[in-house]
Design a protein that fits this description.
Layout (H helix, E strand, L loop, with lengths): L2 E4 L4 H9 L4 E4 L4 H13 L9 E3 L2 E4 L4 E4 L2 E2 L4 H13 L6 H8 L10 H13 L5 E4 L3 E4 L2 H4 L12
Parallel strand pairs: 1-2
Antiparallel strand pairs: 3-4, 4-5, 5-6, 7-8
Helix pairs in contact: 3-5
Protein backbone atom coordinates (compact mmCIF):
# COMPACT_ATOMS: atom_id res chain seq x y z
CA UNK A 1 0.00 0.00 0.00
CA UNK A 2 1.16 3.50 -0.80
CA UNK A 3 0.38 6.64 1.16
CA UNK A 4 1.81 9.69 -0.55
CA UNK A 5 2.90 12.29 1.98
CA UNK A 6 4.01 15.37 0.06
CA UNK A 7 4.20 19.14 -0.05
CA UNK A 8 2.49 19.05 -3.46
CA UNK A 9 -1.09 19.37 -2.23
CA UNK A 10 -2.94 21.09 -5.06
CA UNK A 11 -5.99 19.20 -6.36
CA UNK A 12 -4.15 18.36 -9.59
CA UNK A 13 -1.23 16.92 -7.61
CA UNK A 14 -3.59 14.72 -5.56
CA UNK A 15 -5.31 13.52 -8.73
CA UNK A 16 -1.95 12.72 -10.34
CA UNK A 17 -0.70 10.86 -7.25
CA UNK A 18 -3.83 8.75 -6.97
CA UNK A 19 -3.79 8.11 -10.75
CA UNK A 20 -0.24 6.80 -10.46
CA UNK A 21 -1.39 4.13 -8.01
CA UNK A 22 -1.25 5.68 -4.55
CA UNK A 23 -3.84 4.28 -2.16
CA UNK A 24 -4.07 7.57 -0.27
CA UNK A 25 -2.62 11.05 -0.55
CA UNK A 26 -1.90 13.50 2.25
CA UNK A 27 -0.52 16.96 1.57
CA UNK A 28 1.63 19.03 3.90
CA UNK A 29 1.00 20.61 6.30
CA UNK A 30 -0.94 17.83 7.97
CA UNK A 31 -2.05 16.94 11.44
CA UNK A 32 -0.23 13.97 12.94
CA UNK A 33 -3.50 12.47 14.20
CA UNK A 34 -4.85 12.49 10.63
CA UNK A 35 -1.74 10.68 9.37
CA UNK A 36 -2.14 8.00 12.04
CA UNK A 37 -5.83 7.52 11.15
CA UNK A 38 -5.07 7.24 7.43
CA UNK A 39 -2.39 4.62 8.12
CA UNK A 40 -4.84 2.66 10.28
CA UNK A 41 -7.46 2.88 7.51
CA UNK A 42 -4.96 1.52 4.98
CA UNK A 43 -4.01 -1.28 7.37
CA UNK A 44 -7.66 -2.33 7.63
CA UNK A 45 -7.74 -2.68 3.84
CA UNK A 46 -4.57 -4.76 3.86
CA UNK A 47 -4.69 -7.27 1.02
CA UNK A 48 -4.24 -10.97 1.67
CA UNK A 49 -0.53 -11.46 2.30
CA UNK A 50 -0.55 -14.98 0.88
CA UNK A 51 1.65 -15.09 -2.24
CA UNK A 52 0.00 -16.27 -5.38
CA UNK A 53 0.37 -19.78 -6.68
CA UNK A 54 2.13 -19.90 -10.03
CA UNK A 55 0.17 -21.82 -12.68
CA UNK A 56 1.33 -22.46 -16.23
CA UNK A 57 0.98 -25.46 -18.55
CA UNK A 58 -0.61 -27.70 -15.93
CA UNK A 59 2.12 -26.87 -13.41
CA UNK A 60 1.04 -25.48 -10.03
CA UNK A 61 3.79 -24.14 -7.80
CA UNK A 62 3.22 -22.77 -4.31
CA UNK A 63 6.37 -20.90 -3.20
CA UNK A 64 5.24 -20.65 0.44
CA UNK A 65 4.44 -24.33 0.90
CA UNK A 66 7.34 -25.26 -1.41
CA UNK A 67 5.04 -27.65 -3.23
CA UNK A 68 4.76 -28.26 -6.97
CA UNK A 69 2.48 -30.45 -9.07
CA UNK A 70 2.06 -31.20 -12.76
CA UNK A 71 -1.44 -32.17 -13.84
CA UNK A 72 -2.27 -32.90 -10.19
CA UNK A 73 0.72 -35.19 -9.60
CA UNK A 74 3.25 -34.07 -6.96
CA UNK A 75 6.76 -33.34 -8.19
CA UNK A 76 9.73 -34.50 -6.11
CA UNK A 77 12.12 -31.64 -6.82
CA UNK A 78 15.47 -30.73 -5.34
CA UNK A 79 15.91 -27.22 -3.94
CA UNK A 80 17.66 -26.05 -7.15
CA UNK A 81 15.10 -27.71 -9.45
CA UNK A 82 12.29 -26.03 -7.50
CA UNK A 83 14.05 -22.66 -7.72
CA UNK A 84 14.66 -23.02 -11.47
CA UNK A 85 11.03 -24.00 -12.04
CA UNK A 86 9.85 -21.05 -9.94
CA UNK A 87 12.09 -18.63 -11.86
CA UNK A 88 10.86 -19.96 -15.22
CA UNK A 89 7.21 -19.78 -14.15
CA UNK A 90 7.63 -16.22 -12.85
CA UNK A 91 9.24 -15.19 -16.16
CA UNK A 92 6.66 -17.01 -18.32
CA UNK A 93 6.11 -16.56 -21.21
CA UNK A 94 9.53 -14.89 -21.40
CA UNK A 95 12.92 -16.53 -21.67
CA UNK A 96 15.58 -16.68 -18.96
CA UNK A 97 19.19 -16.99 -20.01
CA UNK A 98 21.60 -19.40 -18.37
CA UNK A 99 23.36 -16.41 -16.81
CA UNK A 100 20.11 -15.08 -15.36
CA UNK A 101 19.25 -18.49 -13.90
CA UNK A 102 22.72 -18.68 -12.36
CA UNK A 103 22.17 -15.27 -10.75
CA UNK A 104 18.64 -16.05 -9.51
CA UNK A 105 19.10 -19.63 -8.31
CA UNK A 106 22.77 -20.05 -7.47
CA UNK A 107 24.95 -17.70 -5.46
CA UNK A 108 27.38 -15.08 -6.73
CA UNK A 109 30.24 -17.60 -6.50
CA UNK A 110 28.72 -19.88 -9.16
CA UNK A 111 31.09 -20.59 -12.01
CA UNK A 112 29.64 -18.92 -15.15
CA UNK A 113 31.33 -21.58 -17.29
CA UNK A 114 29.67 -24.52 -15.56
CA UNK A 115 26.99 -26.71 -17.13
CA UNK A 116 25.04 -26.92 -13.88
CA UNK A 117 22.07 -25.00 -15.32
CA UNK A 118 21.87 -27.33 -18.31
CA UNK A 119 22.05 -30.40 -16.09
CA UNK A 120 19.42 -29.03 -13.67
CA UNK A 121 17.06 -28.12 -16.53
CA UNK A 122 17.54 -31.59 -18.01
CA UNK A 123 16.61 -33.24 -14.69
CA UNK A 124 13.66 -30.89 -14.33
CA UNK A 125 12.44 -31.80 -17.82
CA UNK A 126 12.51 -35.49 -16.91
CA UNK A 127 10.59 -34.89 -13.69
CA UNK A 128 7.98 -32.72 -15.41
CA UNK A 129 7.30 -35.52 -17.91
CA UNK A 130 5.37 -35.40 -21.17
CA UNK A 131 4.35 -33.39 -22.99
CA UNK A 132 7.52 -31.31 -22.58
CA UNK A 133 7.02 -27.74 -21.33
CA UNK A 134 10.55 -26.30 -21.16
CA UNK A 135 11.67 -24.77 -24.42
CA UNK A 136 15.30 -23.99 -25.19
CA UNK A 137 16.24 -21.31 -27.67
CA UNK A 138 20.00 -21.47 -28.34
CA UNK A 139 21.70 -18.20 -27.51
CA UNK A 140 18.59 -16.92 -25.69
CA UNK A 141 17.70 -19.30 -22.88
CA UNK A 142 14.85 -21.32 -21.45
CA UNK A 143 11.14 -20.75 -21.00
CA UNK A 144 7.97 -22.56 -20.02
CA UNK A 145 5.45 -23.06 -22.82
CA UNK A 146 2.00 -24.58 -22.75
CA UNK A 147 1.93 -27.36 -25.38
CA UNK A 148 -1.86 -27.09 -25.60
CA UNK A 149 -1.49 -23.49 -26.76
CA UNK A 150 1.41 -24.06 -29.16
CA UNK A 151 -0.02 -27.15 -30.83
CA UNK A 152 3.04 -29.26 -30.16
CA UNK A 153 6.04 -29.77 -27.98
CA UNK A 154 8.60 -27.05 -27.39
CA UNK A 155 11.98 -27.03 -29.04
CA UNK A 156 14.51 -28.66 -26.74
CA UNK A 157 18.24 -28.97 -26.73
CA UNK A 158 19.78 -32.37 -26.28
CA UNK A 159 19.14 -33.72 -22.83
CA UNK A 160 22.01 -34.58 -20.60
CA UNK A 161 21.77 -37.81 -18.72
CA UNK A 162 23.09 -37.95 -15.21
Amino acid sequence: MVLMLTAASAPGDRISGLSLGADDYLGKPFHFAELVLRIRALARRKPDARPRTLRVAGIHLDPVQRHATRDGHPLALTVKEFAVLQALLEASPGFLSTETLLEKVWDENANPFTNTVTVTVSRLRRKLGDPPVIETMPGVGYRIVDPSLTGGSPANDSTISS
